[in-house]
Amino acid sequence: MSADEKVAVITGAASGIGWALAQTFARARYAVCVVDLDAETAKKRAGELNGNHEGYGCDVSDEGQVERTFAAVQTRYGRLDVLVNNAGIVGSQEPSISQDMVYFDRITKVIINGTFLCSRAAFHPMAAQKSGAIVNVGSIAGLTGLPRRNAYGAAKAGVHSLTRSLATEWAQHGIRVNAVAPGYVATPMVQGLVDQGKVDSARLCRRIPMARLGTPEDIADPVLFLASDAARYVTGVTLSVDGGWAAFGDAGNASEQ
Ligand SMILES: NC(=O)c1ccc[n+]([C@@H]2O[C@H](COP(=O)([O-])OP(=O)(O)OC[C@H]3O[C@@H](n4cnc5c(N)ncnc54)[C@H](O)[C@@H]3O)[C@@H](O)[C@H]2O)c1
To answer: Which Pfam families match (predicted)?
Structure first.
């Protein structure tokens, strides 16, 4: 590892937005730690990046696994510059009255507990270096009300809140904490909802001023910006990356389809 090579941990990096993030950070010359529940794919993905990258199997909602993973990263690289808290699961789309607490707890554990546990584990190496950047992946679901998305929306609103509280506490240690709030992005997560008939992509596109779903790369580039020195005076913000979804408040369609 060269003396100036920075290290980025990206959670949920085996698929979708996380995989685009891993490729984007690798192109920006970071050593990328591909962290995912799916250990086998995480290791395979790290190999595909073809460089000084490593794959780790880890459930971000499990305190012991998170601590062990960040210790392994420290042993392997001896530093940590960027953490992207991207791992997430989609919520039940059932009517609220049918939603059970097992599902509710799992979603909040992965999204809120996972973001907190990984951020806390990243604090020690970043504070020791007196510099670091954390970028959390929130959602439009945490900014607006989406019917039936109770646990998911509440968890993402929690992520936006954690972003602000950690940013204000850790600025004194040289650690910036920001978030992005993506709109609908064409990933396996959203494709699964389309396949189940729970999301109508043509209808969604009419609600988006820019008239298309996002791509994983549309999200990865703003995350790289927030993690970079170009955003050195930015902390505590949640940046909407949604083709104008959150800005639109008019009646009817936002675009012609
Ligand atoms: N796709 C969208 O439209 C959209 C919109 C807004 C926000 N987001 C958020 O972006 C993030 C990525 O979503 P995606 O669409 O790429 O999903 P995805 O399902 O394609 O990928 C999610 C990845 O996270 C991993 N993961 C799940 N639970 C985990 C856990 N407990 N520990 C570690 N890894 C775990 C999965 O194995 C998978 O590789 C999520 O936080 C999601 O909520 C997605």
So the answer is: adh_short_C2
* Known active-site residue 103: no
Give domain status of residue 1, yes or no: no
Tokens of 158: 């929690």
Q: Which domain holds residue 115?
A: 6-185+219-238
Do the beta carbons of residue 118 and residue 66 sit within 8 Å? yes
- Among residues 30, 152, 184, 233, the one annotated as catalytic is 152
Q: Does residue 120 sit within a domain?
A: yes
Minimum CA distance residue for ligand 1 atom 43: 88
pLDDT at 175 over 90: yes
pTM of the model: 0.97
Give the pLDDT confidence of 75-113 residue by residue, as tens digits.
999 999 999 999 999 876 889 999 999 999 999 999 999
Q: Describe the strand order of the beta sheet including 175-182 as a list of residue ranges.
A: 54-57, 30-36, 6-11, 82-85, 132-137, 175-182, 238-241
List, in sequence order, every residue forming a beta bridge with 7; answer none if it has no partner: 31
Query: Which ligand 1 atom is at minimum distance from the Cα of 12?
Result: 24
Q: pLDDT tens digit string along 118-166?
A: 999 999 999 999 999 999 999 999 999 999 999 999 999 999 999 999 9
Number of domains in the chain: 1
> Distances in Å between the alpha carbon of 238 and those of 28, 39, 69, 86, 180?
22, 30, 27, 14, 5
Mutate to test the pocket of ligand 1, among 9, 10, 11, 15 (most ligand atoms within 8 A of CB): 15
